[in-house]
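COMPLEX REQUEST
Ligand: S-adenosylmethionine
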Amino acid sequence: MTNEGSDVSRGTSDPVASGTHLTGAERRGLDAVGRWARLPHLPAEGLARYRRWLAEEAAPAGGIGPKEVPRLWTRHLVDALTFAGPRDVDEPRRIVDVGTGVGLPGIPLAMAFPRSEVVLVDRARRRADLVRRAVRILALDNVVVVEGDAGALATAGIRPHLMTFRGSLGVPAAARLAVQAVGDGGAGVLGLSRRPESPSLPVVDGLDADLEVVRVPEDVLDSPAWLLRIRPRRDVPRRS
Ligand SMILES: C[S@@+](CC[C@H](N)C(=O)[O-])C[C@H]1O[C@@H](n2cnc3c(N)ncnc32)[C@H](O)[C@@H]1O
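STATUS: Structure written out below.
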């Protein structure tokens, strides 16, 4: 099916009819992540429209597993917003989401930071095409989609203040890329674990960055979550 022209794109005054209604628990989850991650904007309606697009178009297209559809809100959308929590700058001028797939965590972050430029990068053409459709349907004018390998970002000179990795690169590759690409005062944030036990701090030989495991509080998500903050040391000259 195509959603362009449906109320996913148009919006409607009736949230139940449009599928953008939030339950009390969903609203509380959004408020909790908003407080913890100090989000400048809580994009409730936009996220609900994105959820509907994920269920109606991304899942049938294979961009997200069918088993994920019933738990999109907490497991994917609120989870995506947690990636802003470990940042140091209030409003990152630019955010780069590496290996975005169908826009996670990049699209929720673009909605929460409407004044930031958000670059969604994926090397898979089908994913890049799908996420381009989402950006168009959701009318996100602060988002650019780039089809290509993350390795090219090291020398692209785009210097994000927040670079995110959710299920895309492993720790060593992500940390090295963050050191090369992230702008001064910025950080890389990688989804490390959703297990209850605290993961051990990864060790990456010869890395010019400080790594820190950050725990997402349990009132924010439905299960424990751990992020890795990668802060490049800027006394070290950047190779480009
Ligand atoms: C498991 S999916 C995760 C997608 C999304 N971040 C999420 O959390 O749902 C991993 C994605 O990373 C992309 N990817 C993996 N390595 C990449 C690379 N070196 N450069 C660009 N994209 C990459 C893949 O094409 C795939 O779409």
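REMARKS: Residues 15-232 form a domain with the Rossmann fold fold (CATH 3.40.50.150). The chain is about 30% helix and 20% strand.
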